[in-house]
Amino acid sequence: MDAVMMIKMLVLQQWYGLPDPELERQATDRISFRKFLGFPDNIPDFSTVWRFRDRLIETGKDKEIWEEFQRQLDTQGLRVKKGVIQDATFITADPGHAKADKPRGDEAKTRRSKDGTWAKKNRKSYFGYKLHSKMDTEHGLIRDIKTTTASLHDSQVDLSAEGEVVYRDKGYFGAPTKGYDATMKRATRGHPLNIREELRNKRISRKRSPGERPYAVIKSVFNSGHVRVTTVARVAVKMIFTAFAFNLYHLATIKRREMA
């Protein structure tokens, strides 16, 4: 098995939001896909793609691939310099037909997520998982991610590193961070925001607004905001390659800006 070609297959899958069988079909039929893969003599079938992803999880190679990609970004002069934006978004999954309070885990069926959980935001319910990401403010690249169940609150995940200024919305108010805290303030009972805090929030909001772009691209361009796999580990490896795909997509944007 050609590992490089398999990694390219997973990138294509997340770029185009394809299920495994459709990935096999398009990699066989589309000349653009075959060119990206290096015109291989044989295209892996969808079961091979599934087993390769599981193998990455078992060996931890998915994280090594991500770390190597980050190292290569650094060597290209794209290091984090000015600060980072941390945010999170829901990655939905199929809840099946069972009631929300029915036990999951090993009792779950194939089409019913084993690890997915329910969460509510702005009076709307979501089932599945949550992608937490850290994007650098200068280049707009995703520099770190973590995948959890949907019900885990954003504030429970800190992706910042020591020495980084981390811009976060009010959902992270009061949550500790390893970096320099630039979290928007939230009014509490008996303690409304004063004018200085409101102005600070506006400055942080403008700074962190570009952090929504990766999620817009992932969901609207890649169609990768919904998963069919059923465990946190399997969703996590998909999200690694989704972030990988976004960074490649955004690098092309950076290159066009430099040439303009």
From TrEMBL:
Disordered: annotated segments: 95-117
Keyword DNA-binding: yes
Compositional bias annotation for Basic and acidic residues: 96-117
Segments forming a coiled coil: none
Cited InterPro entries: Transpos_IS5 (IPR047959), Transposase_11 (IPR002559), Transposase_InsH_N (IPR008490)
Family annotation (Pfam families): DDE_Tnp_1, DUF772
GO molecular function, one term: DNA binding
Domain named Transposase InsH N-terminal: residues: 2-55
Listed GO biological process terms: DNA transposition
Assigned keywords, A-Z: DNA recombination, DNA-binding
Residue intervals of the Transposase IS4-like domain: 82-248
Keyword DNA-binding set for record: yes
Job of this protein: Involved in the transposition of the insertion sequence IS5.
PANTHER family with a match to the protein in the record: TRANSPOSASE INSH FOR INSERTION SEQUENCE ELEMENT IS5A-RELATED
Protein name, per record: Transposase
Record organism: Candidatus Argoarchaeum ethanivorans
